[in-house]
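[09:14] KT: can someone run the structure on this one? pasting the chain below
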Amino acid sequence: MAGALSGVLQHDKIVQSIKLSEDTTTSVGAEVKGSLLSEREQEVIELLAQGLRDREIAKRLFISERTVNFHAKNMLFKLQVKTRVQGVFEATQQGWLRFESIMDFVEIVND
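[09:31] RB: done, structure tokens below
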């Protein structure tokens, strides 16, 4: 029960944090103004927000799964979070994710 409640609360925080800004129109992986993330880390977090797994991200970016994991770990360190969900949440809070990526993530959390 506590896990389900935690998931609902996390979902609510993400939904509340969605802000439409000029940055929502950037292409996947484009440098986002003010982002601490590299262009590749930005690509990885956007694909994570769309619900893709490491294998799918690796195929889309033409890199190995190990490289995806490397970029994800760097992203978590830079964002000072422990999980990928927290990373997506923090990037959303900072306005570093496109609106489409965020909505894909919200749909996944709802399912």
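[09:33] KT: thanks! Confidence is low (pLDDT under 50) at residues 16-30.
[09:34] RB: yep, looked fine to me
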